[in-house]
Structures are given as C-alpha cells and as structure tokens.
Design a protein that fits this description.
Elements lengths: L32 H16 L15 H24 L10 H7 L7 H20 L9 E3 L5 E3 H21 L2
Antiparallel strand pairs: 1-2
C-alpha cells in the first residue's frame, strides 16, 4: 500500500461519503470525535491481538500492525495540529511524510502488543485535546502547505475518517 503524502488534497472526504469505507464526515458532530477515537482504539487492540497481526495480506498491502502504527502516528500528528491551532492564529502545519515515517520507524518490525499500548495512549491524548476545545474555538483555522484550510471541527472529522478507514482496511483483509 502506498500512503498518500500529507500534502495531497483529500479534503473531498469532508464533502461526501468515502466510497470505500462508507464514512460520511457530514454526519459526524466534531464534538463526538473524541469518544469515537477512544472506541476505535479498542477496536485496534482487538485487531493487534490476532495471530496475523504481523502478516501482510499481499506485498503491497500493510499488515494490521503497520496500519496500527500509522494510526498511532496519525493521532500524534493531529493532536499536535489541534494544539497548534488553539495556540496560534491560522498556523501552517509542518509537512508529514507518512511513507518516510513508516520506513524510519520500521512499522513492519514493531511488536503488536507495544503498538496497541501506544495507539491507545495516542488516541486518548488526541481525544483529550478534542474534549478540551472550547465551544467557541471549533472554527479556528489551520492549513497545509498545499493550501488546504481546516477548522478544528473539520480537522477532527478528517482525522476520524483516517482512523475509521484504516480499521476498514484491516478488517477487509480478514
């Protein structure tokens, strides 16, 4: 699987249902994202407890552990972005090369039990950040270097789509 570079414009997932996983960001209240992130973390723990957690279904598709490593890191990156959006006016996000991270962090070699623990911690931290967004701050903006502009609310639902979509990926590979 090739992960799309961070600067690729995938904001369309905010405007219509994902044709693959069915996630529809329009139906998600941003304030509900925190609870859903915590719930999906437990789903990933179950996936990482499977016997095949380290096995790729095919050479071009990540193993459940590799997907979980990516999701762990997505939680970390998005929590940082929300913190930045709360601290600064319309910040530009640092680019994140997801493919490079997967290679440098050796996703394929990580232990499922450790990844599960780290993913739950990262999801909890991200959820805490979203839980701490004051009602009047959900419209604060931040942007990618490619010009894509997010509010904290749209970033939250975009974040949740990534997490839900990759859970769909690992379940589809069953």
């Amino acid at each position: 699987m090739t992960i799309v570079p961070d600067d690729k414009d995938w904001t369309w997932v905010l405007e219509r249902a994902c044709p693959e996983c069915g996630f529809d960001a329009r139906a998600v209240a941003p304030a509900s994202v925190a609870a859903r992130l915590r719930g999906t973390a437990q789903d990933y723990v179950e996936v990482l407890d499977r016997e095949d957690a380290l096995r790729r279904p095919s050479e071009e598709v990540w193993s459940p552990t590799e997907y979980a490593c990516h999701v762990r890191d997505v939680h970390r990156v998005f929590a940082g972005r929300v913190r930045l959006m709360l601290a600064e006016d319309d910040p530009e996000f640092e680019n994140w090369d997801q493919d490079r991270t997967a290679l440098e962090e050796r996703y394929a070699e990580q232990r499922p039990a450790e990844v599960a623990k780290e993913l739950v911690e990262a999801a909890s931290d991200a959820a805490d950040v979203y839980d701490g967004v004051p009602d009047a701050e959900w419209d604060r903006t931040g942007r990618r270097s490619n010009g894509s502009v997010f509010t904290i609310g749209s970033l939250a639902t975009y974040h949740l789509h990534d997490v839900v979509h990759h859970l769909w990926d690992v379940r589809r590979a069953d």
